[in-house]
Amino acid sequence: MPQNISLDKLKIGDLAKINAIQSADIPAKFYELGFYPGSVIEIKHKAPLSGPICVNIIENNALIAIRKSEAKLIIAELI
């Protein structure tokens, strides 16, 4: 059974499929960049403490840095 986890809990190198976004407060730009349910992502870099997380969106090969607070709202399952 797949385990749902927020993006901030994933490790560098993890591949995951986005299942849900838990808040309507996520900017529409995230959807435009490819953060939507069904998207496959890879965690590329994580800054220490509460720094940003660099995510590769596999479908369009885009590297996007997001705040840890935003990553907590994006739920995915490891693949």
Automatic annotation (TrEMBL):
<dbReference type="GO" id="GO:0046914">
    <property type="term" value="F:transition metal ion binding"/>
</dbReference>
<dbReference type="InterPro" id="IPR007167">
    <property type="entry name" value="Fe-transptr_FeoA-like"/>
</dbReference>
<dbReference type="InterPro" id="IPR008988">
    <property type="entry name" value="Transcriptional_repressor_C"/>
</dbReference>
<dbReference type="InterPro" id="IPR052713">
    <property type="entry name" value="FeoA"/>
</dbReference>
<feature type="domain" description="Ferrous iron transporter FeoA-like">
    <location>
        <begin position="5"/>
        <end position="78"/>
    </location>
</feature>
<dbReference type="Pfam" id="PF04023">
    <property type="entry name" value="FeoA"/>
</dbReference>
<keyword id="KW-0408">Iron</keyword>
<protein>
    <recommendedName>
        <fullName>Ferrous iron transporter FeoA-like domain-containing protein</fullName>
    </recommendedName>
</protein>
<dbReference type="InterPro" id="IPR038157">
    <property type="entry name" value="FeoA_core_dom"/>
</dbReference>
